[in-house]
Amino acid sequence: MDAKEILKEHISKFTFLSDEQLDYVFGHFNLIHLKKGQSLISEGDFVNHEYFVIDGCLKAFYLNDNMKMFILQFAMPTWWVTDFDALYNKTRATINVDCISHSTILSISNEDREKICHEIHEIEHFFRWRTNKGYIALQKRLLSFMDNDAKFRYEELLALYPQLYNLVPKHLIAAYLGVTRETLSRLHQAKH
């Protein structure tokens, strides 16, 4: 399936648009191919786009002053990623987004997203729904960090996204869970 069809199918799961409307919406996206390790957003960048993953896997992360990495999000096919704070508040990026594997993504500018949302009510509904789902997922993740131990968070991650363990290097999964690589190995061995 090509990028246009993947985006159309994704949008159509949540709202109805005519083929003409879907074509019009797709016309506001640009196709980008990125290599493994390539950066999409770096801390300090101005951010004017959000990205829809067609193929591959990206990570959104923060590096603290000691260069310790904290993974905020993995972005797999049909997921969205950007520095939403920088995008909506027109500030510089505070996070980084780069490719874990070769990736194909679609980008849409903030201006184009606002334009099509103004013109097509159903697209505005789609983006609002998507934002709400992202907020809910983030809230659940934060609550899990507050209430659950590393073993539970690891098992929860595998239950929700079983493909991640084979797709993402283990040190990145450890950074996402907030544990060391050694702790992740112990958790994996205990489960299997």
TrEMBL record:
It comes from the Bacteria. Keywords: Kinase, Transferase. InterPro entries: cNMP-bd_dom, cNMP-bd_dom_sf, RmlC-like_jellyroll. The keyword Plastid does not apply. The keyword Kinase applies. Coiled coil: none annotated. Residues 13-94 form the Cyclic nucleotide-binding domain. GO terms for molecular function: kinase activity. Gene3D superfamilies: Jelly Rolls. This is cAMP-binding domain of CRP or a regulatory subunit of cAMP-dependent protein kinases. It comes from Chryseobacterium arachidis.
